[in-house]
Amino acid sequence: MAECPAPEWLIEEGIGETRALLVSGERVFAAKVFWPGELHAGLRVTGRLTAKLKGTRRGVALLVDGTEALVDHLPPTVTEGQALDLVVTRAPLAERGRVKRAQARIALVDSAAATSPVPKGRVVRRFASGLWEDVWQSASEASLAFSGGEVLVSVTPAMTLIDIDGIGTPRDVALAAIPAITRSLMWFDIAGNIGIDFPTIAAKADRRAIDEALDSALAGWTHERTAMNGFGFVQLVARLEGPSLLHRFATTRLGAAARMTLRKAELAADGGIGRMMQITVHPAVRPHLQADWIETLTRRTGREVRIDIDTALAIESGSAQLLSA
Questions:
Q1: Do 101 and 120 contact (CB within 8 A), yes or no?
Q2: Residue 241 in contact with residue 191, Cβ under 8 Å?
Q3: Per-residue exposure over 38-54, b if at least 16 CB sit within 10 Å of its own CB, e if not
Q4: Of 143, 242, 156, which Cα lies nearest the Cα of 183?
Q5: What confidence category does residue 116 fall into, taking pLDDT thresholds of 50, 70 and 90?
């Protein structure tokens, strides 16, 4: 049997977003998405210190783009009003009803130049059919199925919570869910505080078996975690640098749906026949189809673009087709 090639990052430069998949053959190991113009970890920026937090080495800086960032490890000599060269350590995170400020630190003289947030990989015109669609649909539904059950993932202000629903003994359901848990972490690009709510496991030996299986599944992923407690709860902590796919769907679902519809339009244009591209979306999605994105779609496909709305469509179900006129 032929061996699968080593996983590699494939990059698809879409309209309004850049997508990255870590792929081996037809299997997706991880996914990331980046939206142009966003702050990202590693970006060098300038700002002005507007406040020093009393009793700490932290402060708030107003960046040149008008957003604010929390700045850590301020030197004692820095004063309010002073201009600062900064490095972003965590992008701002939108949450329901608020936005968590970006986090930054003072840029050292020998700090490396800003690098792209996109992983190093091979740029492709299109991912293989179905790969991005599977990831996107799973993130949209915030769930992944496994044999006999389902992993449900929820974004909260405190942490990302992973719940397990399945049929069988608690031990069997917990063990069967671990591959789906691992896939959800990688596919949805989840980091920060993460809680996993396994079924309650009474026997210590069974809890230990699940801990060992989870350790094995997460080997190579940098994180810390607690052992499973008597209620089946495990907490993971991983370095958080930006929004996960789930954060985007939780707070900017309309924007995500608009970008996916444009991707469908590009796919429809590949090898298709017709002089006009017809896009149909839910009315709430229409304002998120930015004019410059439509111009880019026209240029890339060589087709005039017509946008229709359909109140019966789900937000995530935008469509695209070529018309003869």
A1: no
A2: yes
A3: ebbbbbebebebeebee
A4: 143
A5: confident
pTM recorded for the entire structure: 0.90
Alpha helices by DSSP H, listed for 94-149, are: 131-141
267 residue type, one letter: L
The token pair that represents 146 in the structure block? 């496994």
Nearest to 186 by CA among 32, 19, 25, 27: 32
User: Could you tell me the end-to-end alpha-carbon distance of the chain, in angstroms, rounded to an integer?
Assistant: 50
DSSP strand pairing (8-13 vs 122-123): parallel
Q: Any idea where the domains of the chain sit in the sequence?
A: 44-106, 142-238, 253-323
Was domain 44-106 assigned CATH 3.40.50.10800? no
Measured CA to CA, the distance from residue 175 to residue 58 in angstroms comes to 43
Q: Could you say which architecture CATH assigns to the domain 253-323? A: 2-Layer Sandwich (3.30)
Q: Among 237, 204, 198, 244, which Cα is nearest to 221's?
A: 237
pLDDT tens figures, 33-50: 999 989 999 899 999 999
Sign of the C-alpha dihedral computed for residues 118, 123, 126 and 130 taken in this order: negative
Contact 83, 48 (CB under 8 A): yes
